[in-house]
Amino acid sequence: METTAKTKLDEQNKQLIKATVPILQKQGTAITKRFYQLMLSNHPELNHLFNQTNQRRGDQPIALANTVYAAAANIDQLEKIVPHVRQIAHKHRSLNVKPEQYPIVGKYLLLAMKDVLGDVASDEIIAAWEKAYGMIAQLFIDMEQQLYEEAEAQTGGWTGFRNFKVIQKIKESDVITSFYLQPEDSLAIPDFFPGQYITLKAEIPEEPYTHLRQYSLSTSPNKDHYRISVKREAGDAKTPNGKVSNFLHESVNEGSVLPLTAPAGDFFLNRNDNRPIVLLSGGVGITPMMSMLETVIHTQPNRKVVFIHAAKSGNYHAFKDRVNTISKQHTNVSSYTLYSQPENEHLCDVNGYISYNWLHSVLPTTNASFYFCGPKGFMQTTLLILKQLHVDDADIHYEVFGPAADMSAS
């Protein structure tokens, strides 16, 4: 299968693609699950590109199904999905995805459609989808090429992986540890936009494949090092322990070397906005918020900041002392904490969860820029509250850890 910018769809093919939208809504996840089975069994070398935990949970197939559905629904107006494509393209650039991998994806996606849909996927429909995939793939390839060039062109920039040495390892809470990373070659590193992430390659002994994980940078730019703050992911009855997070906590120490790709991501602080900013986080979602907070106090010292963090308890609260220090030293910063299971209810502002009434009571204004990140439930609740507060959609910014998820309330 070729991917070429010259691929065009006539009206008949567009109608065939649109006609599959109801089918994709119903069978999309089954198709993408089958796709991953087929592709990874025939190309096991691609296993390193995919988070195996997300595969087991079904998050990755659902995310792919949502992307395929969005493309089908907008096949005659692909510009409508450009923001979604850009978000994924950042992840692909960070993961080092290459143009030659797209035909492989296309081949097995079409085979999966045929397998799952049977006679419904006629030769005519498959042919139309082959052309459509060529258009969509080229959209990704072109955008990713631009991102590769931008990553390499900036001062200290690079493409592919670059070795970084752990210069400090600091425990931030019972479950979160920070790793301070300097380039092994001692050369310059590029700045980044507060809120962006890096991809880390973990080479774990006795694991058949390397593992790639994306972690938000948790400090401000303009330093000679990067910092990531990683939550140790404990397993449960359905999910095993996080391979990479436990490897980092248990086996990576000061002096260890980790390969990284250059910072990426389209979720970041708008430093041209001087209105109040509200930073809301749950759990390890505090990491990009810390980068934004540290940046604002240095570059916009008069900008009003409301910093809100939700955690299980004080023992699970990372950067607690740092945020308290900032709020005491900077009169423009107000900080609040919510603990769902506090050891002492006097150690937090709210014993429980974020709510409409409480958030409304602490906000100086809704004419502000809102950024939030955390577990899916926290984010769904926060998004719902912001909508109820009539915050403008253009002022709502959030980051979903892992594959893009449906943020509608379940």
From TrEMBL:
Binding positions (NADP(+)): G283, V284, G285, I286, T287, P288
E.C. number: 1.14.12.17
Cofactor note: Binds 1 heme b (iron(II)-protoporphyrin IX) group per subunit. Binds 1 FAD per subunit.
Every Globin domain range: 8-145
Binding-site positions, heme b: H92
Enzyme's top EC category: oxidoreductase
BP GO terms, sorted: cellular response to nitrosative stress; nitric oxide catabolic process; response to toxic substance
A Pfam family per the record: Globin
Name listed for the protein in its UniProt record: Flavohemoprotein
Organism name: Virgibacillus dokdonensis
Underlying gene: hmp_2
